[in-house]
Amino acid sequence: MQACSLYRASCGIHANFDATYRRPLQPHLCGTDRACDLTSPGTSGVESVSPAPIGQRLRRIWPYFSRSPSAWAIAIGATVVASATEPLIPALLQPLLDKGFRKGGIDIWVVPVSLMLLFGVRGFAGFLAQIALAKVTNQGLLALRQAMFKKLLTARLDLFSSQSASTLANTVVYEVQNGSTMLVNAVMGLTRDTLTLLALSGYLLYLNWRLTLIVTLLIPAIAWVMRVLSSRLYRLTKASQAATDSLAYVVEENVLAHRDVRLHGAQEGQALRFAGLSDALRRLSMKSIAASAAMTPATQMLAAAALSAVISVALLQSASDDTSVGSFVAFVTAMLMLVAPIKHLSEVASPITRGLAALERGLDLMEKTPDEPGGDFSKPRASGEIRFSNVRVAFSADGAPAVDSLSLKIAPGETVALVGASGAGKTTLVNLLPRFIEPSAGLIELDGHELREWQLDSLRSQFALVSQHVVMLNDTVAANVALGLKMDRDKVLACLKAANLARFVAELPRGIDTLAGHNATQLSGGQRQRLAIARALYKDAPILILDEATSALDTESERAVQEALQRLMRDRTTLVIAHRLSTVQHASRIVVMDAGRIVESGTHAELVARDGPYSRLYKLGLYDADLSQKPVTAQLS
């Protein structure tokens, strides 16, 4: 019971992991007023999902695995050869036993040489089939992964609030790899064993058609067993995937928040949480193993009963007919050789079900996740005129709006500072501009065109962002500076120099070709901030967004960053978010926000003279204070 509650709790944690990129409340695609939850990893009701027919599900993934027709032809051809030679093994026993052990029989070298040739052909065919199968699997996996990653790059941003990073990584990297290998091997195994079964059955019909009819009794019984158990296995596999995602998310969460967990002494609680989820996954795994394991003994018992009946009838026939020892042994050997393909066919439902379930998860990600909507308007470089008209943003139906009935016009080249307590709506407001979130109501325009009319690539090319939380890719310094644009090494060096990083880069082992590392964590906060400034300089966008760009820096680092920022802000429309009033008092205009509304705006001198919230802060000597602190919040309210 504890494990279940922990599991449910973990599934909902990631919903509020990064409030910056939450999607505001909008009409749901199905007509409700809830925000879409496209693919929650912890959705309930997994047990109620019924799989579609196998043929329909295989056709769904076929386009990704049909790109190597020659490899498929080689794999199938080699499999046919290997299966067709299966009856030759018992067929060689008949002349050996009937004529090989008496004078005047067959030549001594016939059967040994035939066996060598037979197994040589079978071995070569098996080798070709494995190589061709590997090509089919890897090319299909490549196509599927590339399509999934492309979807991640174009998907609507609410995907990243409904799915954790570990869930998406697990799906793209591990699920599709395991699913592809498992499914293709299972399908080829199904083909091989089916052909082997047909070849051996044909040989048995040739030897004794009456006895062979008994084998057909296996088919409906095995089909029923496979259908019942594979349906249960499908549901258990889906539930196990959800539990695995939740477990991976707990690990991801504790890795990212390792300092906070240790600071608050939460290790024991997190260990219990992990143990509860692990135990829930263990129980699901045991149920899945039991369902899979039940297929083998059930089908083997059916096969054993049929084979026992065949042998009994064969013995009766051999007593009354003039049946040779060789033909009898060949018949019994061929019958016994049927056990292996029958056993494999009884087990093939499990890997096919698991493989399809894993691949369908990736397909669901692509097919059920809509792309970001965009318009047709584009412009090489905007002038930078921005207009908000009665804009409202609400993240939930019953909560207070993050932005409420806000109207604001920003002229080209103007520097506007947004000031207010934490939660006043400043970051939400600037995230509306590159359409990281969408307004619930109202109109936002850039250069006289509504944001929805702009092509997304063109719209986002107009903005450069320098924030408190700098994101760097695990690539070279140069690649991080020129992110998304064509590399110009001279321009990279010039931008790094303008960002006061020339000396730092000169001391790196490989200069701008040095790997920055995972999110550049080996760099200081000031160095990361200046790298972000260099990136913004390289992009040379007409509109600049500064979101707490210096709030976490010491005085010396802030001075170096401020100098670089002054160069960056020149001749651009700039929106500055800061809690330190000293950072914003030289702006063209200061906009003070509270509870999603603009409470006053003007220049520093005008606001100080107005005796409003900004003036009270300034007169209290709090121009270097953090406006998110409680005394300041009281002044703003």
Describe the structure.
With 637 residues, this protein is α/β, with parallel strands linked by helices. It folds into 2 domains: 65-367, ABC transporter type 1, transmembrane domain (ABC transporter transmembrane region fold, Up-down Bundle), CATH 1.20.1560; 413-423 and 460-636, P-loop containing nucleotide triphosphate hydrolases (Rossmann fold, 3-Layer(aba) Sandwich). Helix content is 59%, strand content 9%. The strands form 2 sheets. Strands 6-7-8-3-9-10 form a 6-stranded mixed sheet. α21 links the parallel β7 and β8. The longest helix is centred in the middle third of the chain and has 54 residues, at 267-320. The model is unreliable at 1-48 and 622-637 (pLDDT under 50).
How many beta strands in the DSSP annotation?
A: 10
Biggest β-sheet: strands ordered side by side in the sheet: 6-7-8-3-9-10
At the fourth level of CATH, the homologous superfamily of the largest domain is ABC transporter type 1, transmembrane domain
CATH fold descriptor of the largest domain = ABC transporter transmembrane region fold
Distance between the termini: 45 Å
User: Could you say which structural class the secondary elements and strand pairing correspond to?
Assistant: alpha/beta
How many individual helices?
25
Q: Can you tell me the number of structural domains? A: 2
Poorly predicted ranges (pLDDT <50, ≥5 residues)? 1-48, 622-637
Shape annotation: elongated
Kindly provide the radius of gyration, computed on alpha-carbon positions and rounded to a whole number of angstroms.
35 Å
CATH class of the largest domain: Mainly Alpha
Q: What average pLDDT do the residues reach?
A: 78
Q: Architecture of the largest domain in CATH?
A: Up-down Bundle
The residue fraction in helices comes out at 55-70%
Q: State the major sheet.
A: 6 strands, mixed
Strand content: 5-15%
